[in-house]
């Protein structure tokens, strides 16, 4: 049977946990192995509750926190106590013989709050369990060793200005790492260290609220509030932590606009056009953003007629601008009032209004040199057409506003009258015609008249003059379009053939009323009926027109009702045609009678085309046959006047010594004797071989060689008369200086050079060369 296990925990500092055992100790009813009646043993039932050890305790030696003892341990040293689990052997150690449990180091509850251990008693010799293992918990008892902290601090909050007392601003929260279930180590209380009397804090919840009413942002916009959290319920000895709350007052529209001055004075020149900026006005509003936006308006009617005011893009300034043209001579100053009003008004602060202000404005108009001013903004004149040049059209007039006596000169801008139809008197502005006008060609003439001060040509103004050309009856009526019509052979008498329309280029009115009339002969083949609307109907008379091959020509007379009346005539061509049943034209000419042996026009055209093609082929063939064969010409690259020879064969390489006789390029004395037989030309293809003139024996000069070659070319009848120019390496004979080349030098190897002939002895032709290279020996001393 297992014995009883007893764990004794002795607490340092007078603390004891023996009361936490669930049942008292029970003793044996008798001694094991003693004779007598059988003893009955009742096993105790242990309940291992939580055991505690104070945190942060540190001593010079391991601290005894309890003792493990079994009833089977009779003090003979045969029992061995074991401890396993969390921290066993490191944090907690046990004496195997006595069962004493010690803690070896200081514990921190915030790092680990409890340890689960397993206690067991075994036989020391055989390690046989004497008691079943029992699990128990050692909890680290908390002490107040952690101050409160604000993990989200510092804080920033915003509250509207003028808020009521108790308006919530923000809630701050502190945390204490101590055990909230044991004592008051984690019981926090909030207080305001700095920020009174403007703000307060709820001691339990940490909610910050306004403490006074009507806090004005314009007076102080930002507040720094220090909040403290203290544990132990705020009692003395508790630990504390603090944080800051920056409270910003947000703006509300609680201030009306105010002009910094009651009178504003501006000036503007009279030539300033509409929209010209006169000046800026600004009403001061200490509010921010949309709460400071303003609208400006002119209160007096006299100022609103000449000037206008608007708000700039920022919504703060009033822009005073010219509304209509100003005139110094008419009015020299304007006085009016301007009002500034907030555009956004909060009804909660109407008691602090009114949210507007008024200021006076005076604008002085300054005089400036002005161009002449016309009496009208634009002129509309009229003149009849076809009038002779010089006809009066009208007059324009302008005056100098600065000086009425200043003379004005008038002119027409050439670009507006490119045809020079009008002229103007420079002194008085009278406009006359320069050529007869035609209304049908152009109805309106738009001129620009320029008025310039004689004393100052820079001062000029313009005006538009529109001249209308009035109509006269000068165009006879005509048919709107040429009429070539037809009538069917089967047409019934009185049938409508065509509606004829007339056109009069003159203006609508009596001049354009047109009448039309046909032939008055009662036996006429056709009848014309006037429709009284500028048109007439062409009708077939009661008797049908006799058929004929030629068309009918119907004369039409047209006249208008103008003063005077104008007449004209026109002719309508009417063809009598055969028509199909639906009324369409089948044929308007009699069919030609074709003989059986005749050919159609298409067949005749085809025959003519074939004959022409054959003739063209014959002519081309004959021309090609009669063309002479062109003689073989020298290729373009062969037509060279130097010693460049072109061959049709590839040559025999280095062993081919007969391809070209180079003796012509060498000294005639050293050349090999020419081979017998004729020599071919070197500058053309060798068609025929001709005898070659032999080189002259004995002394020869260049002129003789060239003459010999020229004579040989001229006497050769087998080739065209090409000239041949060849380059020779032979310098010739006859010169007193001999050869200038060093190739034929007479010096011998190992021998001394012979005496050189002085250059001065060569003659006058080599004087320059003697001066440059003929060095003279210095005279002997």
From TrEMBL:
Residues 70-150, 151-259, 260-374, 375-479, 479-592 form the Cadherin domain. GO terms for biological process: adherens junction organization; calcium-dependent cell-cell adhesion via plasma membrane cell adhesion molecules; cell migration; cell morphogenesis; cell-cell adhesion mediated by cadherin; cell-cell junction assembly; homophilic cell adhesion via plasma membrane adhesion molecules. This is Cadherin-24. The chain crosses the membrane at residues 603-624. It comes from Monodon monoceros. Associates with alpha-, beta- and delta-catenins. The keyword GTP-binding does not apply. It is a single-pass type I membrane protein. GO terms for molecular function: beta-catenin binding; cadherin binding; calcium ion binding. CDD domains: Cadherin_repeat. Residues 1-33 form the signal peptide. It is found in: Cell membrane. Keywords: Calcium, Cell adhesion, Cell membrane, Cleavage on pair of basic residues, Glycoprotein, Membrane, Metal-binding, Repeat, Signal, Transmembrane, Transmembrane helix. One of its GO terms (cellular component) is adherens junction. PANTHER family: CADHERIN-23, CADHERIN-24. The lineage of its organism: Eukaryota, Metazoa, Chordata, Craniata, Vertebrata. Cadherins are calcium-dependent cell adhesion proteins. They preferentially interact with themselves in a homophilic manner in connecting cells; cadherins may thus contribute to the sorting of heterogeneous cell types. Cadherin-24 mediate strong cell-cell adhesion. Residues 736-746 have a biased composition (Low complexity). Residues 736-762 are annotated as: Disordered. Its main location: membrane.
């Amino acid at each position: 049977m297992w014995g009883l296990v007893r764990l004794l925990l002795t607490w340092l500092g007078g603390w004891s946990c023996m009361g936490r055992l669930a049942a008292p100790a029970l003793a044996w009813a008798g001694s094991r192995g003693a004779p007598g009646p059988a003893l009955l043993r009742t096993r105790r039932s242990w309940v291992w509750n939580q055991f505690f050890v104070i945190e942060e305790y540190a001593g010079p030696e391991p601290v005894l926190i309890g003792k493990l003892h079994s009833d089977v341990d009779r003090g003979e040293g045969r029992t061995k106590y074991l401890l396993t689990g969390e921290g066993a052997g490191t944090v907690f150690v046990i004496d195997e013989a006595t069962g004493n449990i010690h803690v070896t180091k200081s514990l921190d509850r915030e790092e680990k709050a409890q340890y689960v251990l397993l206690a067991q008693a075994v036989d020391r010799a055989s390690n046989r369990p004497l008691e079943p293992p029992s699990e128990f918990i050692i909890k680290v008892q908390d002490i107040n060793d952690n101050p409160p902290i604000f993990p989200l601090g510092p804080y920033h909050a915003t509250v509207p200005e003028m808020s009521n007392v108790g308006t919530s601003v923000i809630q701050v929260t502190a945390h204490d790492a101590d055990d909230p279930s044991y004592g008051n180590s984690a019981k926090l209380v909030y207080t305001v260290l700095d920020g009174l009397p403007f703000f307060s804090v709820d001691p339990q919840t940490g909610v910050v609220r306004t403490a006074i009413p009507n806090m004005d942002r314009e007076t102080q916009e930002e507040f720094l509030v220090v909040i403290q959290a203290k544990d132990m319920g705020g009692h003395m000895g508790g630990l504390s932590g603090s944080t800051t709350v920056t409270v910003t007052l947000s703006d509300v529209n609680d201030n009306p606009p105010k002009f910094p001055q009651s009178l504003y004075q501006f000036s503007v020149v009279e030539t300033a056009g509409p929209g010209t900026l006169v000046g800026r006005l600004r009403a001061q509003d200490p509010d921010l953003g949309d709460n400071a936006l303003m609208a400006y308006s002119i209160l007096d009617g006299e100022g609103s007629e000449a000037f206008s005011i608007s708000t700039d893009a920022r919504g703060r300034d009033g822009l005073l601008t010219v509304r209509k043209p100003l005139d110094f001579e008419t009015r020299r100053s304007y006085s009016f009032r301007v009002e500034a009003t907030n555009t956004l008004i909060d009804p909660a602060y109407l008691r602090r209004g009114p949210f507007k202000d008024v200021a006076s404005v005076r604008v002085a108009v300054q005089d400036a040199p002005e161009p002449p001013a016309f009496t009208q903004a634009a002129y509309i004149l009229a003149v009849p057409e076809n009038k002779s040049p010089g006809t009066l059209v009208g007059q324009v007039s302008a005056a100098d506003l600065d000086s009425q006596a200043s003379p004005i000169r008038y002119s027409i801008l050439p670009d507006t009258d490119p045809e020079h139809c009008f002229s103007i008197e420079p002194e008085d502005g009278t406009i006359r015609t320069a050529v007869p006008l035609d209304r049908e060609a152009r109805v309106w003439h738009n001129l620009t008249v320029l008025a310039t001060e004689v004393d100052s040509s820079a001062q000029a103004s313009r005006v538009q003059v529109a001249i209308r050309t009035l109509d006269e009856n000068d165009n006879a009526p005509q048919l709107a379009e040429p009429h070539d019509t037809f009538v069917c052979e089967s047409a019934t008498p009185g049938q409508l053939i065509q509606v004829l329309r007339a056109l009069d280029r003159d203006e609508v009115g009596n001049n354009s009323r047109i009448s039309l009339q046909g032939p008055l002969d009662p036996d006429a083949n056709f009848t014309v009926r006037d429709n009284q609307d500028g048109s007439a109907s062409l009708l077939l008379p009661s008797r049908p027109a006799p058929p004929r091959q030629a068309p009918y020509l119907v004369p039409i007379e047209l006249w208008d009702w103008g003063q005077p009346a104008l007449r004209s005539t026109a002719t309508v061509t009417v063809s009598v045609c055969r028509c199909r049943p639906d009324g369409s034209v089948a044929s308007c000419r009699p069919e030609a009678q074709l003989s059986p042996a005749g050919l159609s026009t298409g067949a005749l055209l085809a025959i003519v085309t074939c004959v022409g093609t054959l003739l063209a082929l014959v002519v081309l063939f004959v021309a090609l046959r009669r063309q002479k064969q062109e003689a073989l010409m020298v290729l373009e690259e062969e037509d060279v006047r130097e010693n460049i020879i072109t061959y049709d064969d590839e040559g025999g390489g280095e062993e081919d010594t007969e391809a070209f006789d180079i003796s012509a390029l060498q000294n005639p004395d050293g050349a090999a004797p020419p081979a017998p037989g004729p020599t071919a030309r070197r500058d053309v293809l060798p068609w025929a071989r001709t005898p070659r003139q032999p080189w002259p024996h004995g002394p020869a000069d260049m002129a003789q060689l060239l003459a010999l070659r020229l004579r040989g070319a001229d006497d050769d009848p087998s080739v065209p008369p090409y000239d041949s120019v060849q380059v020779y390496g032979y310098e010739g004979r006859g010169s007193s200086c001999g050869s200038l080349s060093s190739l034929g030098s007479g010096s011998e190897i190992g021998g001394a050079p012979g005496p050189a002939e002085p250059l001065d002895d060569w003659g006058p032709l080599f004087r320059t060369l003697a001066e440059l290279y003929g060095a003279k020996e210095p005279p002997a001393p």
